[in-house]
Amino acid sequence: MPARKLMPTVHENLSCEILLTNSCNMSCDYCIATNIPGPTMSRETGRKAIDMFVYLAQGGKYIEFTFTGGEPLIDFLILKDLTNYAEERTCEAGMQVHFVLKTNGTILNRDIIDFMRVHRIRVVVSIDGTSAVHDKHRRTVSGEGTHNLVCRNLLALLQNQI
């Protein structure tokens, strides 16, 4: 039987998840990030990851980058840099870019909200239901529950159309 030449299939929609850090401002009792070795991603490593994925996604129309962790908002400056860089690189490649941020919902301020709104970043917030259930597992390093804070921050995101 003759060998067939395999041609890559081009997909219109591509997605890449970038683990920015395994660090977190919380101490959830079931967290997998605490078992992931390694330092926080550097700006240079993040840019190389974006370059590689944009290269591999050539021919696609839409590319989505999901930033996750630990808690990716711990290093908001790296997140900002990589978001801006991904916008530049995907524009050069003729693709539309979308962003998703996976967060525990406890770190939020006006700068973060404004940045997310401008860059149309969709947000996935971890919340474990009722206050009693959530606060049993999702605690700060000092042992405090976070349900009320997460709910306030969710409301702020919704009020800002994020």
How would you characterize this protein structure?
There is one protein chain. The protein has 162 residues and is α/β, with parallel strands linked by helices. It has one domain (13-159): Alpha-Beta Barrel (TIM Barrel), CATH 3.20.20.70. 37% of the residues lie in helices and 19% in strands. It is built from 5 helices and 4 strands, in the order βαβαβαβαα. Strands 1-2-3-4 form a 4-stranded parallel sheet. β2 (62-69), α2 and β3 form a beta-alpha-beta unit. The protein starts with 12 loop residues before the first strand and ends with a helix.
What's the shape? globular
Assigned CATH architecture: Alpha-Beta Barrel
Q: Overall mean pLDDT score?
A: 90
The CATH homology group name: Aldolase class I
Distance between the termini: 55 Å
Quote the beta fraction: 15-25%
The CATH topology label is TIM Barrel
DSSP summary: helix tally: 5
Integer count of domains: 1
Share of residues in helices: 25-40%
Any idea what the radius of gyration is? 18 Å
Main beta-sheet annotation: 4 strands, parallel
Order of helices and strands: EHEHEHEHH
Give me some keywords for this one.
162 residues; alpha/beta; TIM Barrel; 5 helices; 19% strand
Summarize the structure.
This protein is an alpha/beta fold and 162 residues long. The protein is built from five helices and four strands; from the N terminus they run βαβαβαβαα.
Task: Please write out the topology.
Blueprint: E1 13-21, H1 43-56, E2 62-69, H2 76-92, E3 96-103, H3 110-118, E4 121-125, H4 131-137, H5 147-159
Parallel strand pairs: 1-2, 2-3, 3-4
